[in-house]
């Protein structure tokens, strides 16, 4: 009897007209690409570029200072003409080239993909350079 009463109430309540459910909010549609003007005005792009440039400058400065204090340490990223004891010119040349490549990828990703994509490569490179700079500062 109890189950019949619950079933009857369920059927009767289903017959009533339910209020209109709230509609989901519209999401930002990134299928329409940004214009070049919008891309260059993107604060996300410039924030990621600034963080990346700052971390590379920190790494270069701490590497050069650490070579005097820690003669037993060697440069871990030995590519593009950078040896175990790099000169300021070698470090700057390599990091400017890497910065240019990653900035170009960030710019194209910001224009043709979601503007949030620019944080990925910049965060990865920045974390690596900050870690390397801290290692040179602590002579590890």
Quick rundown:
With 140 residues, the protein is an all-alpha fold. The chain has five helices and no strands. The protein has one domain.
Describe this structure in words.
The protein is mainly α and 140 residues long. It has one domain. Helix content is 64%, strand content 0%. It is built from 5 helices and no strands. Helix 3 packs antiparallel against helix 4. The longest helix is centred in the middle third of the chain and has 27 residues. The radius of gyration is 28 Å and the shape is elongated.
What secondary-structure arrangement, pairings included, does this model have?
Blueprint: H1 2-15, H2 36-40, H3 43-69, H4 88-112, H5 119-137
- Unreliable stretches covering 5 or more consecutive residues: none
Order of H and E elements: HHHHH
Query: Hey, roughly how much beta strand do the residues contain?
Result: under 5%
- The number of helices is 5
Span of the ends, CA to CA: 78 Å
Number of domains: 1
User: What is the typical, i.e. mean, pLDDT?
Assistant: 77
State Rg. Answer: 28 Å
Structure summary, number of beta strands = 0
State the share of residues found in helices, binned by percent: 55-70%
Main sheet record: none
Specify the structural class.
mainly alpha
Query: What overall geometry do the principal axes of the alpha carbons give?
Result: elongated
Descriptive terms for the model:
140 residues, mainly alpha, 64% helix
